[in-house]
Specification:
Length: 79
Amino acid sequence: MKQWVVRSNRYEPKFADMLEQWANHNNIALLATRPAKPRDKASVEGAVKITYQRIYAPLRNETFKSIRELNIAITHLIK
């Protein structure tokens, strides 16, 4: 979001103070990306396709009672 970047820099962008405080409070790393450059679209779409085929498709007919059960099933598929 453009309004959160105070100073644009390829390697170390400066974010608004309020956003940095929020990120520190929630233990989130702030990273900026290139604006409006679709160079990465194909690789991201490929990663989504692989994830869908390897994780979502095998589990789509399963029912899980908790997030822990779901995480265990995903872990077994990833290994």
